[in-house]
Amino acid sequence: MVTTSKDEPVCTGRGTAMATILAAVALSGCGPDGVRAAFDRVSGGEQIAGPETGGAAARDIEAPDVFQTTEPGLWDGRPSLGGVWVAHPDVADPERVIIRNRSNGQSVTGALFRRERESSGPKLQVSSDAATALGMLAGQPADLTVVVLRRAGGRMSEASPGVSDEAATSGPVDAPAAQPPGTRPPAAARRAPPSLDRPYIQVGIFGLEQSARDAAGAMRDAGLDPAIRAQTAGAGSIWRVLVGPARSDAERSALLETIKGEGFRDAYAVAE
């Protein structure tokens, strides 16, 4: 456990996703500090979150006794897969966390992983999506606080069966593997207009293909056109559910509102 500051525990909001979804994440980084396969540690099996701006019912509380650190974090400027996450060498298991930028007050919920490969500079590695949400600049360390979250009034769940221990501890992955045969082409393959940097909405990342299919089905029931993008990392697989591309800011906002209205409160805009 790392505890270098003692902020008062506060609640952060997260909407309820489909009750049947057991989510787990396997991420890969672009370069020598690749982030590895991971699984959901939050009771109820919902997917690891993307950016959260509040407004949902308070369901999580901070658990600094599990892990907390305040130290410089660095985004090296390269794009990274998997959404919002940070990685630290002192982490034992993947966790759901709140990340705060102490210099500007911005915060975001995301995932915390073990960083296996250390290099010069700050220990705390930050994904490109996390850096964007926190207002960080490439190559410039920011003073961050990272605290594990736990479900209020609930017990900590066991690791999701969607990702094996082997997948969670296998060697670092430096690039996503080829898409498994028989899956639908990724949504990014459908050309997005150049006017938007992030024309797609990521509904969620899932460690079970059926969970991704269930989420995609919910999107179709809502009148949207989802795509399931499969990736492999180590011994595990993940399935991302995307909707888009949007052709304008207004269309993207409408898509996001619809998706969150279906219960996927952690959905957010992504490039692909």
TrEMBL record:
Q: Which domain of life is it from?
A: Bacteria
Domain SPOR as annotated: residue spans: 193-272
One of the record's GO molecular function terms:
peptidoglycan binding
Q: What is this protein called?
A: SPOR domain-containing protein
Q: What is one Pfam family matched by this protein?
A: SPOR
Mark out the compositionally biased spans (Low complexity): 185-194
Q: Where is this region: Disordered?
A: 156-194
